[in-house]
Amino acid sequence: MWLGEVHKMRKAAFGLCLALAPASGALAADPAVPTEVQQSSEDKRWEASFTSDLRYFTYRGTRGTTASSAPATNRGRGSQLYAPIGLSVTGMPTDEVKLEFMTRSGFVSSKQSTAGFKGSYSGPTDTIASATMTYLGFAGVQPFVSFNLNLPTGETVLLGTRGRARLDPDFVDVPTFGEGLNVGPTVGANVPLSENLLLNLSVGYTWRGRYTREGVIDPLLGIQGRSAFDPGENLTLSSSLTFQDGAFSAQLGLSYVFESATSIDRLRTFRAGDRIALNGALAYAFSQDFSATLTGSWSHSRPNDIVDPGQVLPTLVQEALNSNSNVFRLGLEPTYRISPALGVGPSASILYRDKNAFSPITVQFVPAKTRYAVGAFMNYTMTDRVALNARIERIWTREKESPDKYEPAFEAFLPGTGLPALSYEGWQVSGGMSVRF
Predict the structure, then answer these.
(1) CA distances (Å), 187 to each of 36, 97, 206, 224, 335, in order?
(2) pLDDT at 255 exceeding the cut of 80
(3) pLDDT value at residue 315
(4) Higher pLDDT, 333 or 159
């Protein structure tokens, strides 16, 4: 019993560490509708699986999503098609050692069609690769070590209007399309505290490589420059608890991230504030045919360190006003099995960002907002090896009226960046199948 739960918990903790290390948008954690093909060896010691998702999101609203730059008089609209693919191999060369290998990449096509503010991008995302070894030979504890890579197969320099294809990260799965080579080792252990309770502890460090981004446009020559972007490394501490007893299961995870200073063109410009994240899930099977899952998360970032304008040499000091925000998410999915093969149900979720936040990854403000989503999903098992999945959601986003935005680099508010109340509506559709043999 515990071996299966340990495997699930280790994968959850590893996914959380990846999500907290800013990398490609392909790392986004979201509900997927996979296409999977799985092959297992005759001795059952090795298994291989291929996964593929297809998701489409479209929206329209009061303005473009980079609201401080988009034209004030034009309604905004945009879309994104995202198709991640993955390959994983799991094996046990001995009874005491478990090995897991994973690689994931994908294709994204993102577009903003706001009149006077158009831009589009189509191409690959970065590639994520990992290798994990878990030792099962100790009684009461299972240590593991993993090695994670972000390979720069995406694109980081979007000259001209192409940069406008970077959409609000609260809207889409992939807000940016690539960064540099990242190397992240992680060590940890799974500790069964009782027959029903499992503790996971891990620590990871990510070295994030330098890469090039588009720079500012020369006002005289009209030529857009390029900048060397050197993001800070980060240290991630993670822990989680998993409980399961009959029809009830629960999971609670906590992580804390420390980050070093970021440099642009070899000058230290800021250090992102420490980040804490809490996430959890509750699931209960009321009967053989009816069950429900409730998920929630909260993240908070402390104030950033920015350049002190009063010093001759670049010196980082804590900003006077926190330019980060709290983000809350809550989701509910009841599932009803019409037959042993067919499960359907509604879905509902809400995201709340309490104030504007500056994202160093997308280099833009992420507006304070409330985002609602209501939809439905279906899981259909055609045979014991073939299953179909589908999901559709209607999305509403409301951004409250906001004052001029605070620019941490200058410790000042930017005149004219205040916004009236904005609203957006959209659809998100995904579908696929899974095949095992």
Answers:
(1) 29, 15, 12, 43, 36
(2) yes
(3) 82
(4) 333
